[in-house]
Design brief:
Layout lengths: L9 E2 L6 E2 L13 H5 L4 H15 L5 E4 L3 E5 L3 E6 L6 E7 L10 E5 L3 E8 L7 H14 L2 H4 L20
Antiparallel strand pairs: 1-2, 3-4, 4-5, 5-6, 6-8, 7-8
Length: 168
């Protein structure tokens, strides 16, 4: 791990979003946060802000709002929500290992070793100590610690309860 600064992020010339590598697939359909919360109950905006506060507790993040989702990014996107609808938010966070919890609606494996965890949030109180701990770990993934730290856990073989492609 040295003291070298990370490479600068590439910025899409069309939408202005930034990425660790050039020409990453993405949606240029950038939206204002207010558009995402128009027509839904105020408790969803409060829940989003509780989630954002939890993510920002460990430092600054970039908030990217596109047509279908809002993501939180340091070097890479590590957490966020689907576009709000109904009576809850569907939040997600990315780890390099699967977490098993009754709170999680779904865990998806994205090879080689990424796991997208989805958790419904009905109110700000759902942004609790467990979720804050998962978000803190996800933020380390966002900083790409899993790339620079050889001891960082990277589980390549998903358990049977995880959705997505299997390697065997």
């Amino acid at each position: 791990m040295g003291d070298a600064s990370p490479e600068p992020l590439w910025r899409c010339p069309d939408c202005g979003q930034s990425f660790v590598t050039r020409n990453m697939p993405h949606s240029c359909a950038v939206r204002d946060l207010d558009e995402h919360f128009a027509g839904v109950g105020p408790h969803l905006r409060e829940t989003f802000h509780a989630l954002l506060d939890a993510v920002r507790a460990r430092g600054p993040v970039t908030v990217n709002a596109t047509r279908s989702r809002i993501t939180f990014q340091t070097r890479i996107r590590f957490a966020g929500i689907d576009a709000p609808r109904g009576d809850h938010l569907l939040a997600n966070f990315v780890l390099t290992r699967p977490v098993s919890s009754e709170r999680l609606k779904r865990v998806e494996h994205v090879p080689p070793y990424y796991y997208v965890h989805r958790v419904p949030l009905h109110g700000p109180e759902d942004v609790d100590a467990d979720l804050r701990a998962w978000l803190a770990e996800a933020r380390e993934v966002g900083e790409r610690r899993h790339v620079t730290d050889p001891a960082w856990p990277r589980e390549r073989e998903p358990p049977e309860w995880v959705h997505g492609p299997r390697t065997n």
